[in-house]
Amino acid sequence: MLKSFRSRQAQTISSEYVLVLTLAIVAVSAMSMYVKRALQAKTLDAQKRVVADATVALGHRVNMEYEPYYAQSTSDTDMYKEERTRITPMGYINKELYLQRQVEAQSLQKSPKL
Predict the structure, then answer these.
(1) Phi, psi for 83 (deg, rounded to 5)
(2) What is the pLDDT of residues 17-52, one digit of tens each?
(3) 62 Cβ contact partners less than 8 Å away, ≥ 6 residues apart
(4) What b-and-e string marks burial along 5-26, b requiring 16 or more CB atoms within 10 Å of the CB?
(5) Engineered SS bond to 88: which of 23, 43, 47, 92, CB 3.0-4.6 Å?
(6) pLDDT at residue 26 in the model
(7) pLDDT tens-digit map of 47-70
(8) Please, what sign has the CA dihedral across residues 27, 28, 30, 35?
(9) Percent over 70 (pLDDT), the chain
(10) DSSP symbol at 69
């Protein structure tokens, strides 16, 4: 009788540990959202401060973010390949490979809409 009571008590204690551990994990997960938001807010404040300092130093407005929607770029790529195979008088195979690549790129950055 005493042995069965002790084993039930041990099961209760281990289930309480599991419950406390689960609650701790839930609390840490919930707090991680607030920590993430706080770090993002600090980053945004630092970014605004740098932009404000740059605006004062340069004497004109500095955009806060880069917006790729205003960028246009085009590129043309050409490739030429020639392979020559020869057998030398000693019986060796000699392969020569000629590669030529030509790239032309043009990029245009439009001013952002204010």
Answers:
(1) -125, 130
(2) 889 999 999 999 999 989 999 999 998 899 889 888
(3) 51, 54, 55
(4) eeeeeeeeeeeeeeeeeeeeee
(5) 92
(6) 94
(7) 889 888 988 888 888 777 666 666
(8) positive
(9) 79
(10) G
Q: Shortest CA distance to 62 belongs to which of 52, 74, 49?
A: 52
Nearest to 51 by CA among 69, 66, 71, 70: 66
Look up tokens 């707090």; give the residue: 31
78: enclosing H helix or E strand: strand 71-87
3-state secondary structure of 100: strand
On whether the CB atoms of residues 10 and 2 are closer than 8 A, the answer is no
**Using only C-alpha atoms, what is the Rg of the chain?**
34
pTM of the full predicted structure? 0.40
